[in-house]
Amino acid sequence: MGWRYAEQYGTNAPAYYLHPFFTIALPNVFFTASLFYGLVSLTRSVKVIYGGGVLLFLGYFLSFFFLMHDHSATVVNLADPFAINGVMLQANEATITEKNSSPIAISGTFLANRLLWTAIGLAILFLAYGRFSFGRFFKEQTAKKLVVDTASATPVSSIPNVHVSFKNPYSRRIVVSLVKTEWLNLVTDNYFWIILSSGVFFLLLTFGMGVSPFGIPELPRTVLLFTIFNDTFPFYIFIFLLFYTGELVHRERGSGFAVINDTLPPSNRILNAAKLLTLLTLGISVALIPVICGLGVQIAQGFFQFHFGLYATQVFALLIPRLLQIVIFCYVVHVLVNQKFVGHTIGLLLWLALFFLNKSGTLDYHLLLYAITPTYQLSDMDGLGHMVVPVSWFNTYWLLFGGLLITLSALGYNRGISSTLKDRFSLATQRFDKTTKRITLVVLAAFLIVGIFIYYNVSYLNNYLTQHEQTERKVRFEIALKQFAGLPLPKVTRIRSQVDLYPDKQQALTHAWVTIQNKTKQPITQLLVDGEELTDFRIKTSGKAIPYTYPLYYHRGLFNFFRPEREPAEYRLYQFDRALLPGDSLLLEVQSSQGYSGFRNDTYAETMLHNGTFFQGGLPSLGYDTFEELTDPFERRRYHLPKKIEPGAIPQDDPAGRATLKAGPTIDLLKLDLTVSTSADQTALAPGTLVKHWKQNGRNYFQYTQTDPGLYMPIGILSARYAVLQDTVQLDHPVEIAIYYHPQHAANISRFMAAYKDGLHYFSQAYGDYPFKTIRLAETNVYQNKITSLATLDAYTEDFAWNAHFSDPNQFDYTYFRTARTLAQQWWRFQVAPNNTVGSLIISEGLATYSALALLEKEYGATNMRAIVLDQLTDYHYRRSRLNEPEQPLMTMNFPEQSAKAGVVLYGLKNLIGEKSLNAALRDFKQAYAFKNKPPYAGDHDLYDYLQKHVPDSLKYYLADNWLRVTVYDNKILEAKAIPIDKNEYQVIFSVHVAKTALDKTGKEVSAQTTNDYIDLGVFAKDTINKAGQRQTNPLYVNKYKLQAGAHTISVKVKGRPEFVGIDPYANLLDRNAGNNLKRLN
């Protein structure tokens, strides 16, 4: 392929094409062809293809929905007629090497799937063959002869004189009559109701199932229901409207009535208007379906927080304009093409082309893509918010364009016997009369005016860039600014700032005094500053502006005709009059503003909503930003850029990496004094302790400080209309806990509070006291990262955890777990800040996951942790299967996604050496590196060294296996039985198989060189339910055995009736398939 290089691909063997052709493509084509052939032959109606196709389409999407809710691999595999789920499930379990070298295995449930659906196809084929009759299929309906009663016929001489008028009253009556007739044809069509009711059933089912993160259903909020609708249903609606537009436009021609109908008095305008009005009212009617279904599901589930404002916004501002655009598009295509099935094909291809052009980024300039509008997110906190403006303007623009298309359809409307292009063009010129010209001119003028206004906002006030231009700017950025990457950078040691937020204007003003210190060994004479995210900024020192130059200019974008030919990037190179010598400090005065002019081609102002601001502080960043470089290795080769070294791949012994924090090269332990003002009805939150709150000039003011012991950046400022739940925990000092939430999202705030209380007590006892005076959790807008952790302040987006619906005490309380994990980062990110070398992410991510697991063990008990640990293990295997390069061991872990693995490994280590020993190691590590303001900062190797000190020599194999190598177990129970030997005593005999693999240097899995590991073996009684309704695991016998690779037989005597046995029953090891680690006894 032209956009990739040959070395990216392996050998090109014919078997790699033949295998999927015979195992996937051929059975799929056979089943689909058999299904449609059978339906048509049995019903003798081509319309059944519509119904069958839509049902197949809906059923297939429904299978994906079931995939998210049903974790049975057998069900998921067998329910999919096209076997895509089966391929995905195999891919999820395969390593990179297996994906690159092995085809899909034709065995197990995948083989059963292929046989099942091929058999169903054969059954349909034989059924159709058995019931097929050529005579019956081609049998014509014989018309009954009409007998005329000549005796009662009216004499010609008695026929009265009639005056016929075809003026406006007649036209209106005929239009109304024809619309009623067209609607009657629709509602009496059985297939119309089959297709429509299938869609409604599918919508009700998906609304009812909702979404279930971590297996916990969300409350059926209006925002959630419409998000599901917008993600899954629009294509079905397009197909539905396309099919029935074709049926309505070609109805007379298909029935043979067109010859008579075309000779009747109604004008072309009347016939055209009647059909179009029917379709437009159909589209408007369809827009009401999600409202009716949504309200029905909410009432049925006992949820009565109806967001009627959002219902109205969805229907009138989003859905009706969209459906009208679809109707016009489908109508014009069918009128101009004048062949029903060709019209279906062309309409579908054009719509898919628009969709993929936009989604792929190939061409996403919305002024050129029919019916495409800026993307948006629906929010309980902010509704559609500021995005209602650009979406409404683009909808108006495309509706006006639709008006021009209607004119085109009126000119091209086919009437009469001849339908050649020449004749149709001749008729079109005749129909383009003065009235049509006036209407067209008015609509065209309005279309151009709206288009010019949108262009002014998108491409003049703002800067639209194509995907190619964005890539070229990244290249230009690196070529021009890479020379400054080696400049010595100061550390930020103090910030005093006044921030004024204006949520209604989506504007923020910042006036800050920033102290920087040169902690390098070189004088600093130049400073590269990045203000790309700011509207404007100025930097002074001692009241005098620091001189600067623009080291980077960009060429004007292709669609930005009226912007300057060359524009400076907001990177500035500041020149100090006097060099900042090593050890010296400098006070900078920074004034900045952040706001938005007009609107953009796509989503914008995600951090500054009317209700739900998440502001980054308003300060420009210092130094060269490697994250703005081009990352794709093949694109870099195309532009002759050197191979990129990822920032997190710096060797662990690199002095610069150990002297720099992962959070950024200028970040250091700093003292913060931050005053924030916001609207009178909103609360502003920021890191630090709230020391003062007051009202002034109709605005709310808040002052936050953190000077002892200081804090590590980043800084975030939140503002919204919050309700609050507060409490206090007494440690060595009182710690205030506050949960700030949207008033309607109070379902789980007690769970968050419990996690904070329990976590503060346990983590302080295990690792050392919590050093701050407060900890807060705030709800933020849907555009942000789902979880954000700052010093003393955590934030969850409104679509995460706030509205989880817990109905069973055995459900995994991920709200508690995630809150505990986020709280743990107050120790493992904001006390011990990781350095910028490879693997250091394990400190902020892996230790936080382990800490949350350890806290949950206190909550649920060690014997009941299997399901919770397995959830982390499943997450690890899932993410492992999606790596684009061989997995790295924990020592060089470079992805936050590997935190689940690190958590399981540390939890398993606790099982081996004991909780006290592990906590002692982590406490010593924390005390050595907490709140450091000079290098070296903590890295992965430092953590490993502290762990080794507390691990006995006999168990250090475990650290080596999991920290220095990528090791996976494949343990399983082979067989098991229990023999009664006395009253309530049993002899349990079971066989186990132990296997361990590791990745070699090439990334291939090979058997471990030595296996002589301590592994838990256990016998368990039947699970019981405690008073709280929670399922309890009841071990009769659990002990550690030192096992080598291979099969082993164990015999133990237990008291009590055994139910099942297990190897590694509590999932303390990284097992490839923990499902076969337990086995019920015969």
From TrEMBL:
Keyword Ligase: no
Coiled-coil stretches: none
Keywords: Membrane, Transmembrane, Transmembrane helix
Residues annotated as transmembrane: 20-41, 48-68, 115-134, 190-211, 223-244, 276-299, 311-334, 341-358, 397-417, 438-458
Highest taxon listed in the record's lineage: Bacteria
Keyword hit for Hydrolase: no
Gene3D superfamilies reported for this sequence: Neutral Protease Domain 2
Name of protein: M1 family metallopeptidase
UniProt source species: Spirosoma agri
Source lineage: Bacteria, Pseudomonadati, Bacteroidota, Cytophagia, Cytophagales
